[in-house]
Amino acid sequence: MTRNLLLRTRPSLRASRPHVPPTTPWHLPHRPYSLPSQEASLASLPPIDPSALTITRTTTPKPILPPSDLIFGRNFTDHMLTLEWTSSTGWHPPRILPYQNLSLDPATCVFHYAFECFEGLKAYKNRDGAISLFRPSKNMARLNNSAARICLPTVGDGKGLIELIARFAAMEERFIPAARGYSLYLRPTLIGTQRTLGVGPPGSALLFVIASPVGPYYPTGFKAVSLEATSYAVRAWPGGVGDKKLGANYAPCIMPQLQAAKRGFHQNLWLFGEEEYVTEVGTMNFFVAVRDRETGGKELWTAPLDGTILEGVTRDSVLALARERLVPEGWAVRERGFTMGELAAAADEGRLLEAFGTGTAVVVSPVRRIGWRGRNVDCGLREGEEAGDVAKRMKEWIEGIQYGDEQHPWSFKIR
Ligand code: COI
């Protein structure tokens, strides 16, 4: 979009560009995939065109693993969806190809300056045999925000890409496990592919979507986890890119997670600032249910979208369902900043009812305790209890929509 705007204000750029022939199909053996640096341009671009899709089927179909053998993100389907883009020719015709390696020049900008963003969504097999996606337009909107921030091409209104993802997921139907809690995790990934060490907007990009049959994110299943509050490292900061789904936001999160694991915690809880605002948990958004000190009323809190919080699709769904279904029961739902000190005080006073993380991969992840300043903050679960009431109900409600038990506009039927 930014490019189109620029073009409108700078028409001479379009007029002066020489014709650039479409590039060689990238899946041919040893194609030097990346474009030379002079391909960079601000030209007006054709959008994604699902009607131009070509499909090449694998000749070596993979065996289907039993659901119990599935480990998150380890196994992939037979095919992948790919779309190339250049700044001079726009989005090239989409292709579904056999799953394969990419061939990239070592000077490709994604390797040097992290021009990469991604999405995560799932295809679900419904009880009646239908296949559905969950709120894919939310992923498209977020992909556009992430891409625009790092000068990669956007996907317009996202409808073309959703249609292609739907075609791809339908084609990989045999990999979608039918059992509840299982699905086909779809990973749209967008990378800058220009071959250059020069630091500038990539003149070429590749969007690919791969698919992985998955079961519950944690091998232990729906069990409460322990968190270590992290304040020595910061995940995101005001004016930064913590609200974008950039791969570069994830790599620096592993070390604090390992540190937490070394001290016996499952995950880390990201705090921010001297006040120790509670922001996210691992790679998930974070919710707490507390009783108000004055009124005793029940409240559901999560950190506000102030630019440091990822705009989680599950986060948004939990908030919407809470407003629709918990508020009539007397709950208050607040997107508000809250500190670790406030949480600890609520726990000490018996007002912290429960805490849970939310994300596409895990849906809902209940929390038992938080290690903070040498003590344990107990998150309200009783002995032997693995999830609080809100976490359980949210999981039921969201999965009910995802697996088609409840007819809901958030369910996008593929077929
Ligand atoms: C999610 O669950 O939404 C995530 O982003 C986790 C993924 C990076 C594995």
Alpha-carbon distance between the two ends: 31 Å
Inertia-based shape: globular
- Ranges where pLDDT stays below 50 over 5 or more residues in a row are 1-43
The CATH top-level class label of the largest domain: Alpha Beta
Helix % is 10-25%
- Spell out the CATH superfamily of the largest domain: Aminotransferase class 4, branched-chain amino acid transferase, N-terminal domain
CATH topology of the largest domain: D-amino Acid Aminotransferase, Chain A, domain 1
Radius of gyration: 23 Å
The tally of helices reads: 9
Please state roughly what percent of the residues sit in beta strands, choosing from under 5%, 5-15%, 15-25%, 25-35%, 35-45% or over 45%.
25-35%
In total, how many beta strands?
A: 19
Named at the architecture level, the CATH assignment of the largest domain is: 2-Layer Sandwich
Average pLDDT level:
90
Bound molecules: 2-OXO-4-methylpentanoic acid
Q: How many structural domains can be distinguished in the coordinates?
A: 2
Structural class: alpha+beta
Summarize the biggest pleated sheet: 10 strands, mixed
Q: What pattern of helices and strands is seen along the backbone? A: HHEEEEHEEEHHEEEHEEEEHEHEEEHE
